[in-house]
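User: My instructor asked us to take a sequence, write out its structure as tokens, and then describe one feature of it. I'm not sure where to start. Here is the sequence I was given:
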Amino acid sequence: MNKIIYSIGILLVLFLFTACEKEDTLGLSKQTNYVVLTMAGDELMFVDKGATFTDPGVTGTEAGEAAEVVVTGTVDASTGGIYKLTYTSINVDGYPASVNRYVVVIDKAAVAGVDLTGQYERTFYGSPKEGTFSDWTKVNDWTYTVKDPGGVNSGDYGFNITVYLVDATHIVVPIQTNPLGGTIFCSSTKGGVAPDAIEHTGIKYIWSVKGAGFGTNPRTFEKV
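Assistant: Let's start with the prediction itself. The structure tokens for your sequence are:
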């Protein structure tokens, strides 16, 4: 009988100890320090075709200590276009932090003398359309402002975006502020998730506008 009582006593002590331990840790969460990334240079950089691109780099710190930063992506300075570099660092608990830089390569010899200035009518957006326009204004040989990039011609859509001519027949629209909220950029396809080179023949271009207030169907514009 004494042995039974003794065994019950041990089990009761173990139960109470376990219950207290669970109660003490209930609701507690572990703190983690994310890597803080600091970018040298600009998020959007430019390089002439044929020149050497030197990456200013990104540094990372975690709880005041230096953290390793890994770069993915490359810049082909021999070809006009836009290139994405992603800098990523993972903290001791396995949580990543990342920032992006875009580099625009411009073939200044090829764009000299090209002029895309003018009004372009939106002729297709999911189906044939007509009667709405975008206006292109030349700033310098490779820089343009485009009013009403979606060719909506209504409400708050008549704002300007900046477009770069990277060679004689291609443009890029980097990520920039969207007056309708967030950011805006253009890609060559409906499914594009980052800026890329878009063909512009001088009289026609097709782009997908990515930003709040816009559908992603490709929009065809033809010079008036």
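For the description part of your assignment, you could build on this observation: The radius of gyration is 28 Å. Try explaining in your own words what that tells you about the chain.
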